[in-house]
Amino acid sequence: MAETKTPTVLPFPNSKKRPATTHDGDAAAAKKASMLFSGESDPAAALAAARHEFGEHGGVNMSIEASATFTVMEPETMRRMFSGELGPDRDFFIYSRHFNPTVLSLGRQMAALEGTEAAYCTASGMSAISAVLMQLLSSGQNIVASQTLYGGTHALLTHFLPRVSNITTTFVDINDINMVDNALVAGESKVLYFESVSNPTLTVANIPELSRVGHAKGVTVVVDNTFSPMVLSPARLGADVVVHSISKFISGGADIIAGAICGSASLVNSMMDLHQGTLMLLGPTMNAKVAFELSERIPHLAPRMKEHSKRALALAQRMKKMGLKVIYPGLEDHPQHKILKSMANKEYGYGGLLCLDMETEERANRLMNLLQNYSQFGFMAVSLGYSETLMSCSGSSTSSELSNEEKQLAGISPGLVRMSVGYVGTLEQKWSQFEKAISRLQDSGLFNKN
Description:
alpha/beta; Aspartate Aminotransferase, domain 2; Aspartate Aminotransferase, domain 1; 2 domains; PyrdxlP-dep_Trfase_small; Methionine gamma-lyase; PyrdxlP-dep_Trfase; PyrdxlP-dep_Trfase_major
C-alpha cells in the first residue's frame, strides 16, 4: 500500500486555489518559520505580528468560508488531496470536518497567542482535551495528572477513559515535585496533565519545573491554560501542548462554546490523519461562523485580561482587609504567588478569578443569593471570562463530579465560592454592592467576619 501523507496545517499566504501542477513546496517551507515565529515573547505582540487574513475582496476582516465541501478544477487533484500530496498549506481543501480556511485562520491566531507551531480549533474545550489525550495514549497506558482539575476533566480521566480504552490516571499533588517525579514511570506514563491555574482552587503550577521533570521521563506535558490566557504562556515555559476552552476569557461573551489545541505541527497533523487521527475520526468540528466570531474578539483579549486582573486584585485586597478568607494568586500570601510572578507575562496581572471560602455550602449559597438578587454585584452562573462577574459554589456545581474524598484531596471546601470577576460598571460601584451584601449576610446571623 502506498504511504498516505497528511497535509500540513502550517499557514500559507492566501491566494486563489493553485493549479495542482505548481511546485513551490520549498518556497512555502521557507516562509513558514518566519510567519509562525516572530520572536515575540509577549502574546499580544505575537498576535499583532501574525499574518492578517483579508477578505476575499480586500476587506479588513477575513471572509467566512461557510462551505462544507470544496470543488476542484481537475479530477486528478482530488486524488492528490486524499493522498496527502496537496493540502491546506497550498489552499487545497476537501471537506470542513477536515480543514476549513476560516477555522484554520483562527488556529493561526491561537498558535501565535500561545507561541506554538500550530493549533487546531474544536467545538468545545472538552473535545480539545479528549482528542489530545486519546491521540497521545494507547490502551493500557498511564496519565499522571493533578488531583485538582475541572470536574469534567476529572470524570474523563477517572471514569470514561478507563472504561473505553483502559487508560489509567495517577493523581498527584502538582506542587509536590517529588511526588510527580515518583509517579511518572518511564515507558509507562505517557502524559503529564495539569491546569496552569487550577479549577477551582487557583493553585498555580510550576510549569518550567514540571515540564523539566516530565521531559526527563519522556512524557508529553499537556497544560490547560483556560484560566490564564495572556497571563501565562505554558508552551513558552516548556509545555508541549496547550489546550483551551475558548468559551471562557478568549470569547468573553458567554455566547460561544469552543476549544483549541496548541502544539507542534506534527501533533496536529497526526490528529487529522485519515486512519488514526482523533480530530478527523471523532469529528469535534468548529463551525466556520463561530471561528469568524472568535477571530474578531482575540484582538481585544489583551485589554480585557488586563482589566479582569486589575479588578480581581483590587477586590481580593479589599476582601482580605475585610477579614474574609480570600484566595487569589495576586495576593502575596498566596502559596504560589512568587512562582506565578516569575512565570507571568508582564502587564497582564494575575488573572480574573478569585475564591471566597465561606466554609459551608449554606453560607456560600446565601452570599451568592444576596450578591445577585439583593445588591446586583454579579450573576450565579457557571463558566468564566464574562464581562459581568459570575459566581458558583464549586463543590456542588463545576466540581460535583468529584467524590467527597476527592474534593478534600483537591482542597475544595464545601463553601468555596468561585468568582470570575467582570469589568462592567466601576470598581467603587461593585465594591459598594459587595459590601451591601456582606452587611446583609452579617445581619442574618449566618456569617461573622474573622
